[in-house]
Amino acid sequence: xxYFLNLIxxxxxxxxxxxxxxxIVKGLHRFPRLNCKFxxxxxxxxxxxxxxxxxxxxxxxxxxxxxxxxxxFVAKRIGEEHLIPLYGHWENPEDIDFDxxxxxxxxxxxxxxxxxxFVHEDTKxxxxxxxxxxxxxxxxxxxxxxxxxxxxxxxxxxxxxxLMTQGAGERSLIDYKVQCVNGVPQRIIVISDRGEGKGNxxxxxxxxxxxxxxxxxxxxxxxxxxxxxxxxxxxxxEEMLEMASKLSVDExxxxxxxxxxxxxxxxxxxxxxxxxxIAPVYVPEGMNAILxxxxxxxxxxxxxxxx
Length: 307
Description:
This protein has a domain of 211 residues: ATP-grasp fold, B domain (D-amino Acid Aminotransferase, Chain A, domain 1, 2-Layer Sandwich), CATH 3.30.470.20. It is 30% helix and 19% strand. The protein contains nine helices and nine strands.
């Protein structure tokens, strides 16, 4: 199977625009207007796609997308105390030191998405299966098949981190995803009740808020929409937004993810090309307020690293 995938990837890497166009057709069922002028971009995923194509060889994007290398980047800007504890990293899955890993922990690759393996205290660990799964994940040509070629500059590895838990009454961590434009937070996407099993990338509830914590339910598809009354405004929201600003200050658009555990803020990841722009969780035009801000900033000469 991977022989054919790699064969396709060897061709696809030369045509990231075509790959992005195919994703738009598949995900949004719309004509991919990737040749339009910047001022005519109709919705956010067109912007994200054009940005990904333009930054395919951007080493800064590669560092930010790297779930291992980004830790140093983040520590320098907001402090290493906001990093989830790291238990180890290995370039070869066969070298994973299982004996040193004490549950709960999570294993993941640093160069893609949807590769998480959750190990709880009561999880029966099949080491051989985990090694096989991680080898497949590291070998998958994610950059070429998604049109996000900056991922191809990441040195692949497996990392193990402490599996953080939210507390009683929560099935999963509450994920705060802050969308920033030129270092200014614009919206917070809140995700909860996320599934852990395979194929559960879209098993969750979601709600969007502005930075004053006013809900924006019209931006989210009804199937995935959470009740905003169930989502408490974080006590340290302003601190989280300040951290998001420090991490995104050099980028025209960046999504910064956080968790809040026992009142303390932990960094999740940095995403220059969030797939939520094309995922069925959003109304396609639901993110256009972000796009409008990007256009206004660029017109005013405020944009950082515009493509």
